[in-house]
Each structure stands twice: as C-alpha cells, then as structure tokens.
Amino acid sequence: MSDSTSSPSFLFIDSADALIDLCQQLSSEKWLAVDTEFVRDSTYYPEFCLLQIGNEQISACIDVLAIEDLAPLLELLFNPGCVKVFHAATQDLELFCHLCQRIPAPIFDTQLAAPLLGYAEQVGYATLVNQYMGVQLGKGQQRTDWSKRPLSQDQLSYAADDVRYLAQLYPKMRDSLHDRGRLEWLNDDFEQLVRIEKYNVPIDQAWRRIKATKKLKGTRLRAAQRLAAWREKTARSANKPRNWIVRDEALVDIATMLPVDRDALSRVRSLKGRSGERYYDALLEEVRAAKSDSSPAPTQEKSKSVEPVDAALVDLLMAVVQLRAEEHEVSASLLASRKSLEQALRGDQDSLVLNGWRATLIGDDIQRMINGEIALSIQDKRLAINTI
C-alpha cells in the first residue's frame, strides 16, 4: 500500500509520516470524533485493527497494524484539552485501557446523550445519523474481519462513515443540550465511563461475573472463586476467550461436585469439548486448595431488600414522573420505571432514578416526595408539585 491514499470523503493513513502529518493537522482541535475497529472472536484481549478519527472537515482511517509507532496518535487521543466523541464508547475505551493502561478523557458519548434529546436509550448510531442527516448507512461490513489485509475500499468507506457523520452529529447534539440546559447533566455519566476500575476487574473477583455462583456457599464458593481466578489468569496468559479455557457451566459444576481425582473430574459432563484433559491437574489443584483453605469463604453480595411496596405510592411517584416528563419533553418510561421507583421507596440509593442525569431531572423530586418535603395538588385542573 502507499503511504496514504485519499478519496473525496476520507484519508487512509498507513505510514508513520502520514500519521504525523494528520496528527499535526488535528492537534489544535477542541474535539474529535473517534471510533475503532477490532476483532475478538478468538482472543481474550481485543486485537486493535483500525482507528477512525476526524472533525467536520477531515475523516481519516488509520491502519494501526501497519504503523509501528503510534505515539503521535496516542498524544492526540490523550490530550486533556480535546474532547473525544464516541458512540457507545465502552468497548472502545476498554481497548485503550488494555493498550495503554489508561483511558482517553474527556469524552462525549452520543448514545448516552441521545435520551436527553428525546431518543430511546441504547439508540443505535445508524438511527441517529438517519434522524439528523437523513442518511441511511449501509450494513454490509458489520461482520467483516478487520484484521485481514488489504482492506477494501468498501471496508474503508464503511469505517470512515463512523466518524464522518459522528463529527456532524456532535455539534448538533451538544448545542441542543446546551440550549436546553442539559449539557452538564451528562458529566457524571461520562466520568464513570473513563474510570479505569470499570475495565480492570481484579482477578480474585472474576467469580462474580458467573451468575450461577450465587447458589454456592462455603467451600464450594471458595472453590468457584479459585477456579474462576485460575481461568482468568490462564485466559489472559494464553490470550484466549475465557470459555475456550473452561466454560462457566463447567466451573460451577466442578465447584459444586468438588471432585477428588481425575476419574471424578472426568465425570463432569460440562467439562467436555475444547478443555479436554489438558487442564485436569490444574483444576484439581484449585479444588484441593479450596478444601484445605481455612480462611473465611468469599462473601456473596447481599440481595437488595425486596419487602413489598405499596402500589399506590408507586402510582403517586409515577404521576410526578409523568409531570416532569411532559415539562422536559422526554418519555416518562425513559425517566423512570416502576422498578426503579420501588427501589427508591425501599431506600436503595443505587436506583437508576436517583443517579446520573435522572437525579437532576426527576430523582431529586422523587427523593423529596418520599421524604415528605413536596406534595401533589390539582391547580386549574392540572397536576402541580408544591413544597410543604
């Protein structure tokens, strides 16, 4: 391939010199649209294949597999004076966490911002592009293998669209949020996204991601903890998906049965397949260690209180939600579900309605209503909120 190629709509960068030139052009920007392409079908860690970046004038696809020194790009991405704009940023940020052990900040996520402008939660990028620009994005490259070279013109065009229209979306969404006084409401959500703890889960906590371990106690739970930690270390070391090492179901079955030897372990039906016998000794060692460990077993997270909640009280809170939803021109179902209101009534501060941007929009009113600080009344045949 040449050092860089261009089309009427994007640049393709596959050399160090071209990358330096591009980064110099973008170095003074206050914000940049960013997206990544990676593959993870047969690895533990995502394999970084392509990065798309741009503003309202430039869209570029950077072949990170062809360029050994990505320092100019990383300097650009980690510039604290530049907002990095993503759509559904979590997987992109996880990739940077693995690659650099840090996360680009500050960020703006159009998927998180969209509900404050009347769109559904988890709204897709293609939907926003269609609504804002009237453009129907193609889907032909959704299952492409981005690690294969050379990349076709169709692949690159598809990838470039991910930042070309994102760079047009961001100013429109940002300005709309600003005009409605909602831009700062997203700060907490974005700050949570760039916390490195979100992506670096301690190995000794790996068992918590396996739902079936909630049924285990004592030695069996300790075995599950050790087995999950062993699998996590093994998967990372081999760079293979966790379930290619041992499936969740098999880990739980081993922890439940506590086999004493290879013959007993061979009777665990869920252990068949890819794992075979090559991990038998390691698995048995973890079980033995769990049995001989006299320390307290790991503690399960306490279940949230599930005491009954008066349905009439939830109905009352739903009336507050409906009133605020009409005032702010957003969907009432987006603001709060009955479940989140029940959690708030039980005193659960993790309730969705009491956190993030919802706390500003409706959560404060819900908490004040629960505390008896405000009440509902009818004024001129309309519902009104009054301070007590």
Describe the overall structure.
The chain is 45% helix and 12% strand. The N and C termini lie far apart (72 Å). The strands form 2 sheets. The protein has a 7-stranded mixed sheet, sandwiched between helices. Strands 8-9 form a two-stranded antiparallel ribbon. The protein has 3 domains: 4-198, Nucleotidyltransferase, domain 5 (2-Layer Sandwich); 203-292, Orthogonal Bundle (DNA polymerase, domain 1); 311-387, HRDC domain (DNA polymerase, domain 1, Orthogonal Bundle), CATH 1.10.150. With 388 residues, the chain is of the alpha/beta class. The chain has 17 helices and 9 strands. Strand 4 (47-54) and strand 5 (59-62) form a beta hairpin.
Q: Descriptors for this entry?
A:
388 residues; alpha/beta; Nucleotidyltransferase, domain 5; DNA polymerase, domain 1; 7-stranded mixed sheet; two-stranded antiparallel ribbon
- How many helical stretches? 17
CATH top level label of the largest domain? Alpha Beta
| CATH homology group of the largest domain | Ribonuclease H-like superfamily/Ribonuclease H
Tell me the overall shape.
Answer: flat
> If you consult CATH, what is the topology of the largest domain?
Nucleotidyltransferase, domain 5
Major beta sheet, specifics? 7 strands, mixed
- Spatial order of strands in the largest sheet: 1-2-5-4-3-6-7
Number of separate domains: 3
Strand content: 5-15%
Distance between the termini: 72 Å
Compressed to H and E, one letter per element, the order equals EEHEEEHEHEHHHHHHHHHHHHHHEE
If you average the pLDDT, what whole number results?
92
- Helix content range of the residues, please? 40-55%
